[in-house]
Amino acid sequence: MRIFVAGATGAIGRPLIAQLLAKGHDVVALTRSPDTARTLAEQGVEPAIADVFDADAVKAAVIRAQPEVVIEQLTALPKTYTGESMSAAAPLNHRIRLEGGTNVLAAAQAAGVRRYLRQSIAFWAVPGTGLADEETPLSLDASPAVAADARTVTEIERRLLETPNLEGIALRYGFFYGPGTWFAPDGDVAQQVRQQQFPIVGNGEGVWSWVHIEDVAIATVAAVERGNPGIYLITDDRPLAVREWLSAYARWLNAPPPPQVSVEDALRMSGADAVYYGTQMRGALNAKAKRELDFQPRPLEWLVDTPVAHAS
Questions:
Q1: Helix and strand tally (H, E) in the chain?
Q2: What is the helix, strand, coil percentage profile of the chain, to 5?
């Protein structure tokens, strides 16, 4: 298939391009940089040069490419994972998701694209017992930044899935780990853990769902080829409470055990969002992706030989 990718050079984009090419697809990638365009061309990708905020240029690029499928992976996330850096990045990230994504979606409609896939989020489900599935709404009343992002993602998903004459697929990814991510051994979170700057909040009962960045690419290509319109949760098989995964992660890094702080201290030092991630987050169920996409995620690498109980 001929596939147009917006967001081809980020943490997801690089392995995604490799997977698409390995499966024999004809790939066109959007970039605004001539230097990046040359790099893409050297990889066997056809570059399309346009600024994602220039609606006319994006429309012209997609119409010129004439793809069957568009994959949108647009984000603007920082290299560091701190409250300050995430807050600083939030306005551009919000804009690129909403305005940039709207431009790409409109261009796809104008070009008569058959199928459209976009990145979404698995870990902002409404808190509750058990694991969230594709029918679980996102937490619009969570802590401030989480609620704002959940509202943005909910609106983005609604626009996509309600677009007529288009097979819309929203891929709700878990927390990324693997090369190029915050949780890689050379990533920012790993450095924070080594320096005991990433604590367990309260009892650490917030449940995180993970996915290796290469498994993200594999699942996304599977959704391109045989996914059904709607939402998929792309996560691994082992959602874990923070107190479990973070302690094992520190051991894997040969770092000191993570410190533990009270909810009150976390609120004072880091704010309500840190408390949400540490104590309220809900894990996700990947059964639909396994059933319909034959998704087989690898075990979380720092837990392969560690007997940790499943979170529920």
A1: 12, 13
A2: 45, 20, 40
- The answer to whether 40 and 8 have CB atoms below 8 angstroms apart is yes
C-alpha pair distances (Å), 101 with each of 71, 116, 190, 295, 298: 10, 11, 31, 26, 30
Amino acid at 18: A
Question: Phi/psi of residue 187, each to 5°?
Answer: -85, 175
Q: Where are the domains of the chain?
A: 2-177+210-235+284-301
- Looking at 3.20.20.140, 3.40.50.720, 3.40.630.30, 3.40.50.1470, the CATH number of the domain 2-177+210-235+284-301 comes to 3.40.50.720
pLDDT tens digits for 267-286?
999 999 999 999 999 999 99
Residue with tokens 């998704």: 295
Nearest alpha-carbon partner for 311 in 198, 231, 215, 204: 204
- The two three-digit tokens of residue 196, written as one number: 């005991």
- Its pTM surpasses 0.90: yes
Provide mean pLDDT across the span 258-262. Answer: 97
146 vs 140: CA distance, rounded Å:
8
Of 11, 14, 7, 12, the residue nearest 29 (C-alpha): 7
Residue 146, both tokens:
């989480």
DSSP conformation letters of 226-279: HPPSEEEEE--S--EEHHHHHHHHHHHTTPPPPPEE-HHHHHHHT-HHHHIIII
